[in-house]
Design goal:
Pathway: Amine and polyamine biosynthesis; ectoine biosynthesis; L-ectoine from L-aspartate 4-semialdehyde: step 1/3. By secondary structure, the chain is an alpha/beta fold. It folds into three domains: about 190 residues, Aspartate Aminotransferase, domain 1, CATH 3.90.1150.10; about 260 residues, Aspartate Aminotransferase, domain 2; about 30 residues, no CATH class. About 35% of the residues lie in helices and about 15% in strands. The protein has a seven-stranded mixed beta sheet with strand order 4-12-11-10-7-5-6. Strands 1-2-3-17 form a four-stranded mixed beta sheet. A four-stranded antiparallel beta sheet has the order 13-14-19-18, covered by helices on one side. α4 packs antiparallel against α10, α5 runs parallel beside α10 and α11 packs parallel to α13. The two termini are about 30 Å apart.
Length: about 500
């Protein structure tokens, strides 16, 4: 079947309605997938497309339609699809006749990967680091890191934070504010829009830090001194929530003072995504352990734990997985790390991401259903809310549940980032719109995702109620492509907002 000319849109995109292809072929594949695969499919349910070709930002489906991909393999594609330096690295290994998997044996490919990885690590960690390879998924890296700190400290418990998602190890991102599952204690995570204490800003971050300190030091808290604390510098699946820099520095100080290893989960934030090569660099924090996956494999499965040398107990027989010697992933990862570093793509992500965030802020003024826009670098989230809903009921800690003044009561003394003291009282603080969130609207977020797909834009969903539309474009995104992404997203929000206004009369048609 011959191909007809396609219409080029701004940013080099292609009009998804004019590219020819075989729609019947795609529908057949989707029908068989629905019949044969588990109902637990998530991305496939929301994104009924069959990718057959891809390059950079663009994916082409089996039906010939083309899309701008701002999901990027859930953040795994730092350079987008099929970047030339990645393909060249993979072909070189294939053509060399080298083994493709050798467990954890030393190889030239592996040596080159570790060397390049050490070039990028925060200086405070690079000069005393060890690397441990494990199974290829991010959850494998988290599990390995947890085993590492438990063996090193002789303790068993872990501290994580509400909204965080660390794979299977620390449970789902919608766990309660303080939950005990036998191994993991979840504590309040500071954020502005849905601050667990209802105040946001520096005061909310201070209260969260003091809550953590109280749990660590109070024998009556029910939590023993943990084997480690794990934190995402920017929560990804939890709804794109950047950790305040001052709060993260306090977590570093609290853990260091108590000899509790700090684990930074950089699985989604690493390799330049947030505007620094590693997101902990924004706050100047040097963790004891970093867990890495997604982008470090250059689009192929790879996971690594980097840790302080003195934490290495080297216990024999510790299971770390069979597939920890993937030579193609290491070669692709080396090429990706080097390209990101040499071309200063983190700095590019910081500049372009700040510009996109600034432009997206206009959505909060134009559409009442857009509750918040937030992010760091090219890790961006837009939270959708029900503009007719009532404020409150957002999971904030009630005043009666104060811990040493935390969470309300008669008032707590807080310090902002400049060190100035202020008084926070549940009776006197009157949060503005940014501090009085409306109920989340997962239906609106899903509607925006569908409208984006109709316009040739692929976005993800996240947040504790899947009410946050997430943008994770490749770091190679151009200015023109960014403009096309924002235009399509704004148009999708406009369509979904119209649906919301008429939802009482008729449901939104998928």
């Amino acid at each position: 079947m011959g191909r007809t000319p396609v219409k080029t849109l701004p940013g080099g995109a292609v009009d998804s309605d004019t590219a020819p292809g075989t729609r019947a072929e795609q529908e057949g594949i989707l029908r068989r997938q629905s019949a044969r695969e588990s109902a637990a499919r998530t991305y496939a349910r929301a994104l009924p497309i069959v990718p057959v070709r891809a390059r950079g930002l663009t994916i082409e489906g089996a039906d010939g339609r083309r899309y701008l991909d701002c999901l990027s393999g859930a953040g795994a594609l730092a350079l987008g699809h099929n970047h030339p330096v990645v393909l060249e690295a993979i072909r070189k290994v294939l053509d060399s006749g080298a083994p493709l998997n050798v467990l954890d044996l030393a190889t030239p490919v592996k040596d080159a990967f570790i060397t390049e990885l050490f070039h990028t690590l925060p200086p405070g960690l690079a000069d005393r680091a060890r690397v441990r390879f494990c199974g290829p998924a991010g959850s494998d890296a988290v599990e390995t890191a947890c085993e590492l700190v438990r063996a090193a400290t002789g303790r068993t418990g872990l501290i994580a934070f509400t909204g965080a998602c660390h794979g299977r190890t620390a449970g789902p991102p919608d766990a309660p504010t303080v939950a005990h599952d036998g191994q993991v204690t979840r504590l309040p995570c500071p954020q502005d829009y849905r601050c667990p204490f209802g105040v946001g800003g520096a005061a909310g971050a201070d209260l969260a830090a003091r809550w953590t300190e109280s749990v660590l030091d109070d024998p009556g808290s029910g939590t023993s001194l943990p084997a480690g604390m794990i934190v995402e510098p920017v929560q990804g699946e939890g709804g794109v929530i950047p950790a305040p820099d001052a709060w993260l520095r306090r977590m570093r100080q609290l853990t260091a003072d108590r000899s509790v290893p700090l684990i930074a989960d950089e699985i989604q934030t690493g390799v330049g995504r947030t505007g620094a090569f590693w997101a902990v660099e924004h706050s100047g924090v040097t963790p004891d352990v970093m867990v890495l996956s997604k982008a470090i494999g250059g689009s192929l499965p790879l996971a690594v734990v980097v840790h302080r040398a003195d934490l290495d107990t080297g216990e024999p027989g510790t299971p770390t997985g069979t597939f920890r010697g993937n030579q193609l992933a290491m070669a692709a990862g080396t090429a990706t790390l080097a390209h990101v570093r040499q071309n200063r793509l983190p700095e590019r992500a910081a500049t372009l991401g700040a510009r996109m965030l600034s432009q997206l802020q206009d959505l909060t003024r134009e559409f009442p259903c857009v509750g918040d826009v937030r992010g760091r670098g090219l890790m961006i989230g837009v939270e959708f809310v029900d503009p007719e809903g009532k404020t409150g009921g957002d999971g904030r800690i009630p005043e009666a549940a104060a811990v040493d003044g935390v969470g309300g009561g008669t008032g707590a003394r807080c310090r902002d980032d400049a060190g100035e003291a202020s008084t926070v009282s549940g009776a006197s603080v009157m949060p503005d719109r940014a501090r009085r969130p409306l109920p989340a609207s997962p239906e609106l977020a899903a509607a925006v995702q569908r409208e984006c797909l109709r316009r040739g834009l692929i976005v993800g969903l996240g947040g504790r109620q899947a009410s946050v539309v997430r943008l994770l474009p490749p770091l190679t995104l151009t200015d023109e492509q960014a403009a096309a992404v924002l235009d399509r997203l704004a148009d999708a929000v406009r369509a979904a907002a119209r649906w919301h206004e008429s939802a009482a009369a008729a449901p939104f048609a998928p």
